[in-house]
Design goal:
The chain is mainly α. Helix content is about 40%, strand content about 0%.
Length: about 110
């Protein structure tokens, strides 16, 4: 049982993988399939989930023209309107609460 990257003296990760598969039916860790581990009889399952991040973009026929409105393109206009309306309503609610209770900021401070 190892926590972190440190192993006891004289033991390497291959030895630990071999010990874990001899002692238990299943060993879960970030084991990389190497020829040395497979030669010791350790079987590795096929990956079923790939979590590498990728970035997709449309291929542009316009060349290298800078699109200044590119920041607004991820969302439809309705989404941007909803975000803006939420900010405005939240600001108005805060101003109203501040008028009703001028000591509001002082009571929220942690001493």
């Amino acid at each position: 049982f190892v926590i972190g990257n440190s192993l006891p003296n004289g033991i390497n990760w291959n030895d630990l993988a071999h010990w874990a598969t001899d002692k238990y039916d299943l060993a879960l860790d970030w084991w990389t399939p190497t020829t040395e581990r497979m030669a010791k009889g350790i079987a590795f399952s096929n990956g079923w989930y790939e979590s590498d991040g990728i970035m997709l973009t449309k291929k542009s026929n316009k060349g290298d023209i800078l699109n200044t409105s590119g920041l607004l393109q991820p969302f439809e206009n309705e989404v941007w309107f909803t975000i803006l309306a939420t900010i405005i309503v939240t600001c108005i609610a805060y101003i109203v609460m501040k008028k009703l209770d001028p000591e509001m900021d002082k009571s929220a401070q942690i001493s």
